[in-house]
Design goal:
Elements (H helix, E strand, L loop, with lengths): L6 H6 L3 H15 L30 H4 L11 H12 L2 H8 L1
Length: about 100
């Protein structure tokens, strides 16, 4: 047998552990099964239920600048890391060259 020297195979050679592993896998996978007669339970909400009113807030100019979102942290180290990553990214350079 070609796996006879494999240390992992040696653990399962007795068969007890292998049976336990298969049983465990079947038990775990059976939890994913939904029967063919599954029906979503019907839920009712109280008549006076309403969504909370949320006033939309105005969008600030800083939020519109998502292309440089890391600048909102005012961290020079982070800005230097991102700039370095953009400069050394070959994929971006190749896309830009097209």
């Amino acid at each position: 047998m070609r796996y006879s020297n494999d240390p992992i195979w040696q653990k399962f050679k007795g068969g007890g552990s292998l049976v336990l592993m298969i049983w465990f896998a079947v038990a775990i996978l059976s939890g994913c099964v939904v029967g063919p007669d599954f029906q979503r339970p019907h839920t009712t909400l109280p008549a006076d239920w309403s969504e909370p009113a949320v006033e939309p807030r105005p969008v600030t100019s800083a939020e519109t600048q998502l292309s440089r979102w890391w600048t909102l942290f005012d961290d020079p180290t982070l800005a230097a890391l991102v700039d370095s990553a953009v400069q050394s990214n070959l994929d971006l350079k190749q896309a830009e060259a097209r």
